[in-house]
Amino acid sequence: MLRRPKPTDSEADLLREQQELLAARGQSSVAVVKRPDKRRGDAAAAEPHEQGIQRDVVTIEDLPDELPTLTPAPPKKSRFKQERVRFEDEDPDERLDRHDTHISAVLSRIIERDTSAVPVSLPCITGTAFPKVLHRSVMDTLRGRKSIFARQIAAQRAKKEDVHFSWLTKTMKIHEENQSKLKTMSQSEILEEQRKLLAQLDPRLVEFVRSRKPQRTPGSESASGPVTSPELDHTTEAQESQRETMEDEEEDENQLVVQAPITGLPIKPQKEWLHMDKVESEKLEWTRDLPAPRKQSTKKAMQARFDFAGTLIPPTKDLPTHLGLHHHGEEPELAGYSLQELFLLSRSQLNQQRNLAVSTLANVLAKARAGEYISSLKGSVLSSLLDAGLLFLLRFSLDDSVKGVMSAAVHALRALLVSSDDEECLDNAFPWLLGMATFPLLPTAQEDEDDEGLDETIKETAREKEEKKTDHDVASQDVVKGFLKMQGLPRLRYILEVVRPSPRVVLDILEVLIRIARHSTAAATQILACPRLMNTVISEFLPCSWAPATSQALSSLYGLPVALAMKLLRVLASAGRHACARILNSLGGKELLSRFVVVEPSEMLLETGEALRCSTEALRLFAVAASYGQACNLYTDLYPVLVKRLQAGNLLCASSEAVPFLELDRIKALMVLLTRVTQTAGSHEELQRGLVRLDYTSTMWSSSMICNPGLSAAGGEVVPSLPGLGCSRLKTSSTMAGPNTPLSLPTALLYLLNTITSIHKGLTKKFSHLILSDSVLSYLQSCIGAMPSVSHMSAWILHHEHHLLYLLLRLAHKLVTATSVPVDPEVAKHAALFHQVSLALVSWLLPGSEYLAHELMSVMTFSHCLLPEGVDGETEVAALAELQLKDRTSPAVGALLRDALQHLPSIRGCYLTHLAHLESSVLSSRDRYLGRTPFVSSHLLPELTGPSLPTDWPFLPLISLYERMGLSAGGEQQVESLPAGSVQSVTHCLQWLLVLESWREQALTVVPPVAKLARLACVFLCSSDLFLERPVQELTWALFRGLTRPAQLEALDLGSPPPGLASFHDLYSALLAQYEAVSFGDPLFGCFMLLPLQRRYSVTMRLAVFGEHVGMLRSLGVSLQQLPIPLEKFTSPMEDSLPLLRLYFRALVTGALKRNWCPVLYAVAVAHLNAFIFSQDEVAEVNYLCNKTSVILTFHYLHLLLSPLYISLDVLTFSDMSGFFVSPGVKEPPASFSAAPTEFRAGLQHL
């Protein structure tokens, strides 16, 4: 058999094999067939066959000799012909439309060119009717081979050159005249003229000219040589430079041009260097030594620059170049990198530059979170970076294929999101009572203005809005949510699972996941739902078996237990009971707890600190599971081990040696676990042995977040989209967040005392010395009047301090209300103090503490025992204070207070009924507080939006009725149509407000006086005649008099909008309309309408009364005796609004305002008009009034007014108006008339 040819065969070998094939008469494996040439036609294709020339033909088996025919047969002539294949069933009309080349088809596709940006040149305006015709005879002098148009352009250029030459001639003539005049002047005259000229010019312009060109002394250069104009100098220099350039180009390219030597360069250009035949000095400037940084003489802000460690470099600091901080930027002499330059380097093509930029940004972020730039830089570095797209930059860097860049991006992400101080403080607070409950780190919710005024049915849901938002919009509002939307979790899983980075990167990723889990329950659920993420964490960093570490510096954490991984499980379990059950059952959490709880830390084959942290986090995870009522079987199995650990911890704490913090944290975690599982308390003997002296309360008020709101100030930079706890400053300024906090032990002890006194009430008196200690009383006194600020930085401490304060008040209430033994007089003396603190605490309680608010309002707030004023005769004192000789329109306050004290149980029921909408929150909070583990859904508290109850909660029944009836029904509901019990509810609300205003005024200081007035106005807007009910009117009169006391009246500012309203003027407009409709001249309603008309308030409300609602003056019959506001508040100072004075005048002239209809406003209008007419101050408005065209008409109406005015004024003889009116019976103008303007006096004399 013949072999196949090989590449190594020569030509001789191939020929030999061919001869062997032919000798063997073998058949070839292929047949070569040459196709006919279609371009030569059929005849040419048939010639070879006719001539008998045998050609090679290639044939393939099972292939027909002829191709199948198509109808019509497509002769493949050309590419254009192929595109026009026609079929039999094709519609001719469609083919015609497809290949139509009619003019209409062409014109329909014409696109007009955009000529909006093309300049339009208008023809020149000439004196003739038509443009001048260009004749050939004009161009005879410009004959040549140029066109007529080119000749015309050349003529225009020649004309311009003539004009320019003539201008130069004139300039030279002027210059020569100046030179000749200078020659005739002496040197002193020249200097004098120069001084005058400089005095007339702007000094800045002179300085600019001197800096651009050195000044030449007159006569020095001009006298020595010929004078040339600057234009000629410029032209000569341009010609010379052009001539030199042409000569340089004509020289040999290989020869070095002889130039002035360039000094200061570290290198010397050589002739042999490529393309260095002509040295360009400006391109070699970068090789010179850097100049020293110049000191800035101005206070202008400069761009911040940082070194590689993130340290801010002062602009005047001169650093050596070997540090690598100098580069070819805009300011090469300054060391360091700006944020803009770091962003640019982070997208470089060089791996080292990207790594360097991202690492530097990570260091800058860490220092910015610590607050190191606050005193040095203007603005927030963190906010600037986030606005510039830092989160997107880090997300892109996480996808980098270079491991170093990816590791730097993880480190920068950790610096952005994680605060080590916050995590440390939360770990320290875990063993506190209810310490595992934390607020979610959600940004403050922003209201969407687009949905305002829309119906509820067409409003978009939160999920629909979230889906429509872009990544940038989400990240600008919430950084964590934006990172989740960018698919950051799958990328972190890929890094852990596939890349398997260094230990530092692993720890950074675990800390980032912990911070994301603290964001919200939804974020924790996304972590658990991310495919293979938690499986990778548990299998790689929480193995059940591992080999001991061979060295102290670990090169990899894979296959070894990591405490942060166990902490991640604990934080995820705190997000909800379903998440905890998933960890225990689906992810093997029970096996992990059995492994790490049973084994002693010394037997874990790990570093001592890491082993203790792993054991502590395992116990904390066990405690979180037990708080949901889960893993109870595991507790039964591990009971002997846990008891053994408890005994060992007791012995360790009883020894005289100092206990390490890590070991103490482990013991605390064990105590929390046993508390959650067993829910037991100590015996009475153990309590007496432990209650020797409570020293923690001595430092309570100094470290209290309630008494010292400044402690919650941020220590570092704060970004609204990335909230934190701000514990870096709190750790240094207070001991509240440290291991020796004064919160944990007193809270646990008071919880134990309340539990014992609930079981054995006879033991209550034994703890009176604790409540009456000076430190506790001082702490309670400091809480009165405090206004703590609520934010993420203070809420987590305030939550625990509120709990401590509640337990303290509950124990004090038990001492005051003890029935088995007589009440200690010292305790009863401080009952009012306990009541004031309880009222303040109700307004402070945060979301998640609704059960405490319910308990306070049920037990203490409306307790008769905590209102000693009702027993000590305070009501009689109030009645004597209200005693007057004349009859009053309402009973004394003392009787109203006595009636309110008798109805305290009904008042309490009224307020609890109006808080029924918080029932679900109260039940959830109760289950968490009482330790009802099967019903606890999550240890993440509700979103922090402020206190649970509004600060004006005493007005709640009144506001609720107004929202149901006043707005929806337009304020026209009758009493019969009001909801059942509405009158009684409003009465109870007004009674409680009267009690607070009389005896607990401090409790309402958080409500501004304008808000109190606006809330009381709801009495008139709720219904048409609710304010006419006798109990409602009596209580409203009493509250209105309290609101118009001198101190309260001075504090009443109607210019600031009340909470919940756009402005007070809107509320007053509604009151005006309601008064005109349903008031029936009620004095109480009238006093409310007169209060905003005082002179110191806005004139718009007085204009509304005398302009739009002038008809109400007929029924506004409040007498001067009924008005609780001094009349001077309405008449002083003099009115300066001309439109209002005109309205006063019109109301008096037309009879719309009469003394017997509206005595108060009648007196006010007459007083202001009298003061305006006879004023000695010639203000601009008076001069405006006294013009020649209007003065006669004005005094004509004044004459109609004066005749009855002089007669009717004799009834106004009270002392308050003696300075504002003309004396009775006087027919002559007063003495002040002589000081009036001339036109005023002339007009009156004319009349």
Descriptive notes:
It is a single chain. With 1247 residues, this protein is mainly α. Helix content is 53%, strand content 0%. It is built from 59 helices and no strands. Helix 24 crosses helix 25 (577-585) and helix 42 (893-902) crosses helix 46. It is extended. 31% of the residues are buried.
SSE layout and pairings?
Elements: H1 11-23, H2 41-51, H3 79-83, H4 92-98, H5 103-107, H6 148-184, H7 187-200, H8 203-212, H9 220-224, H10 230-250, H11 339-346, H12 351-369, H13 381-387, H14 390-398, H15 403-417, H16 420-429, H17 462-468, H18 471-477, H19 479-485, H20 488-499, H21 503-517, H22 521-529, H23 533-541, H24 563-574, H25 577-585, H26 589-598, H27 608-627, H28 632-637, H29 639-654, H30 661-678, H31 684-690, H32 700-703, H33 727-733, H34 744-759, H35 768-771, H36 774-783, H37 792-816, H38 825-829, H39 831-844, H40 850-861, H41 874-881, H42 893-902, H43 904-914, H44 919-930, H45 956-966, H46 982-999, H47 1009-1016, H48 1018-1021, H49 1030-1043, H50 1046-1051, H51 1064-1078, H52 1083-1090, H53 1099-1108, H54 1128-1131, H55 1138-1150, H56 1159-1173, H57 1180-1185, H58 1191-1208, H59 1238-1246
Helix pairs in contact: 11-12, 12-15, 14-15, 15-21, 18-19, 21-24, 24-25, 24-27, 26-27, 27-30, 29-30, 34-37, 37-39, 39-40, 40-44, 41-42, 42-46, 43-46, 45-46, 46-49, 47-49, 51-53, 53-55, 55-56, 58-59
Provide the descriptors you would attach to this structure in a database record.
1247 residues, mainly alpha, 59 helices, 53% helix, 0% strand, disordered C terminus, TPR_RPAP1/MINIYO-like
